[in-house]
Amino acid sequence: MLEDTSFAIHPGQKKQVKNRNFNDIGKVIKFEQTANGATVQTESGDLKIVFYRADIVRFVLNPFGDTTLASSPALIAEPESVDFLAEDADEDILLQSAKLTVQIKKNPVRLTVSDQDGNVLIREAAKGMGYNHSNEVICFKEMDVADHFYGFGEKTGFLDKRGEKMTMWNTDVYAPHNPETDPLYQSIPYFMTLRNGSAHGLFFDNTFKTTFDFKTEKDGYSFGAEGGQIDYYVMSGPEPKDVLEQYTALTGRIPIPPKWAIGYHQSRYSYESEQEVRELANTFLEKGIPLDVIYLDIHYMNEYRVFTFDRARFPKPAQLVSDLKEKGIRVIPIVDPGVKEDPEYKIYQEGVQGGHFCKYIEGKIYLGDVWPGNSAFPDFTSSRVRKWWGEKHEFYTNLGIEGIWNDMNEPAVFNETKTMDLKVIHENEGDPKTHRELHNLYGLMMGKATYTGMKNQLEGLRPFLLTRAGFAGVQRYAAVWTGDNRSFWEHLQLSLPMVMNLGLSGIPFAGPDVGGFAHDSNGELLTRWTQVGAFTPYFRNHSAIGFARQEPWSFGEKYEKIIKKYIEIRYQWLPHLYSLFAEAHRSGTPVMRPLMFEYPHDANTYQLSDQFMVGDNVIVAPIMQPGIEHRAVYLPEGQWIDYWTGEEWAGEQHHLIKAELDVLPVFIKKGSLVVQGELKQTTEMKDEKLTVHLYYGDCTDYSFKLYQDDGISFDYENGKCLTKEMNVICQDGKVDLTITDRGKFQPDWKTVELVIHGVCDNISVSVNGIVKSAIKKNEQMFTFQL
Ligand code: MIG
């Protein structure tokens, strides 16, 4: 029949292949200086160049229409006023701030960005910016032989992403994560380049599906998007720390977490009844295993309806929450975005009546299949919807709940594409856009709604939010766990570079499910994983329904004992870790760092994926294979002390280290210090005494900023916090400790004990210039008041 109609000559029958080739943007037509940079008219639209600071410059070009300076919600910064020189010559245009020089060759347009010393950071050569008729955009850059690439958010594989091609498209991946699994739940279109010891950053602010390609070409890389503008920021570095400071100036930093959120967390899919939760808490208390949080996974709800409890299994949630809180344990329930399609369910009614759900352009609400069956999805791109959703959390906060766990917020839907129909329209504050364009923002905006709502309700207490999906800037609202890993040794291994790269992507509060989520864990794996977890920023044991239980005692006494020991160590290290979180809050510096972050000139660190640093002076080198008690450890410049034995190891060398099952290899840099508190059951217990462990060794300036505040409120924003900057000089038989206090806060502790490790001769110790004591051989410890 169809043959008789015009369909017979339908053009699609010849299966035309789309021409995806990119057109170059062409040459410069006109140059115009602006308050913060320039507008350069090209053959393919206006290229706007904006200095945000002397060390941050933005490039925007829309090849399909008017170039706009509007940004995605990742951005929190506005351009500062920046002094710069502009020069319009025959062949090129030069824009120069105190830190950056932008050169624009005119025909064709080719950009070069250099630092103040003339070192090239990024350069376009044969190819520059391009676009095609499928509305895709792309930027090609030269790649130096010495370049190493880090960041990109949540990726599998090793630390350095040179040679990889990665996509940003928030995706629920239950299938086992392996080195070619990409994308995962988070989209952070940002990376840091390290070249010969200097670093610079690049943030591509585009919410569409983006691709970063360091693989296809030998001497060039590219980043591109399925739509939208070319819109990226170059950050000058030159230290990795500077890049993080610059990137987080644009996208924000973590609030200081409530102290309880950096304790040990226990989860399971699912603890299914009040009784089970109480028994769990009691077991921790009886066994004296420290614990701060228990999670409620989807079984707490009435048929997976968010903002409800199943009253048969959880008859008295308020009582449960308050009884546990008395014991210093908080309860965190899961909240998914999918709202069950049920005309008798209040949230669904409100959502429909208020116009809060995502809709097709024709007006029909989008429904997708998730846990509760057919469900509608709040449109978090609208501030009105965010307010509504945030306010709904009174349901939890009125019960005394201070933390929420957001899952499935890619959003995940049980269908072929794994997500919402791309045609769905988001309100987006009066600028409606398709899900195809805003998909990657869903988790971020849900996080914003949840965090803001809770913060309003908690009357000055810090909320805690855990999220699976996110976009650049998600650190402002939530900690990130790395989704559905498995109880494989390989997944313990891959969690290290993954969390380190999250840290380099502005997300310092992250961690994997300790012990592994799916698959059956075992005693040895859980033990080794808990040892690592004790030193990773986010520390939660979580496992899936239908697999072996993995609470600390699940595999027998031998393992339980070691697991307990390491959870205790976490609590002892809390003053130190909390100080590092405060540093992340101040400057974006990650808590858990790759060695290249501190030793960017040491090529041995560039791909080092099985060791990490906690702060700037502690190296953790875990065993991550079964039946193994030895491993190679690389120690960079300096002298390093084995945390357990006091043995000294030389830097800039590899060593073979022995570590039986109860040993996590930890090394402290000589001449530096670590601050510890007391053993405790929960973070609710205060430290009466602090211990400063100083590792004696030649050092002319080491400094650590010990931070304390009340751990629960936002008073720190008004100066109610204490920073004790401890400066150490160890030389010629002398230890000089200088302590400078900043801020007004009466700390918990009454005494501070100084323990000096590695003293082998008479030395004299002074604190703030006053000689405290002369230490003779083997007298290594003394106590005083700080
Ligand atoms: O499709 O809520 O990643 O942590 O336990 C599974 C049940 C949905 C996925 C999360 C996991 C959680 C589980 N969720």
TrEMBL record:
<dbReference type="Pfam" id="PF13802">
    <property type="entry name" value="Gal_mutarotas_2"/>
</dbReference>
<dbReference type="InterPro" id="IPR033403">
    <property type="entry name" value="DUF5110"/>
</dbReference>
<dbReference type="Pfam" id="PF17137">
    <property type="entry name" value="DUF5110"/>
</dbReference>
<feature type="domain" description="Glycoside hydrolase family 31 TIM barrel">
    <location>
        <begin position="255"/>
        <end position="580"/>
    </location>
</feature>
<dbReference type="InterPro" id="IPR030458">
    <property type="entry name" value="Glyco_hydro_31_AS"/>
</dbReference>
<dbReference type="GO" id="GO:0005975">
    <property type="term" value="P:carbohydrate metabolic process"/>
</dbReference>
<comment type="similarity">
    <text>Belongs to the glycosyl hydrolase 31 family.</text>
</comment>
<dbReference type="InterPro" id="IPR011013">
    <property type="entry name" value="Gal_mutarotase_sf_dom"/>
</dbReference>
<feature type="domain" description="Glycosyl hydrolase family 31 C-terminal">
    <location>
        <begin position="588"/>
        <end position="673"/>
    </location>
</feature>
<dbReference type="InterPro" id="IPR017853">
    <property type="entry name" value="GH"/>
</dbReference>
<keyword id="KW-0326">Glycosidase</keyword>
<dbReference type="Pfam" id="PF21365">
    <property type="entry name" value="Glyco_hydro_31_3rd"/>
</dbReference>
<dbReference type="GO" id="GO:0030246">
    <property type="term" value="F:carbohydrate binding"/>
</dbReference>
<protein>
    <submittedName>
        <fullName>Alpha-glucosidase</fullName>
    </submittedName>
</protein>
<dbReference type="InterPro" id="IPR030459">
    <property type="entry name" value="Glyco_hydro_31_CS"/>
</dbReference>
<keyword id="KW-0378">Hydrolase</keyword>
<dbReference type="InterPro" id="IPR013780">
    <property type="entry name" value="Glyco_hydro_b"/>
</dbReference>
<dbReference type="GO" id="GO:0090599">
    <property type="term" value="F:alpha-glucosidase activity"/>
</dbReference>
<feature type="domain" description="DUF5110">
    <location>
        <begin position="690"/>
        <end position="759"/>
    </location>
</feature>
<dbReference type="InterPro" id="IPR025887">
    <property type="entry name" value="Glyco_hydro_31_N_dom"/>
</dbReference>
<dbReference type="InterPro" id="IPR048395">
    <property type="entry name" value="Glyco_hydro_31_C"/>
</dbReference>
<dbReference type="Pfam" id="PF01055">
    <property type="entry name" value="Glyco_hydro_31_2nd"/>
</dbReference>
<dbReference type="InterPro" id="IPR000322">
    <property type="entry name" value="Glyco_hydro_31_TIM"/>
</dbReference>
<feature type="domain" description="Glycoside hydrolase family 31 N-terminal">
    <location>
        <begin position="47"/>
        <end position="213"/>
    </location>
</feature>
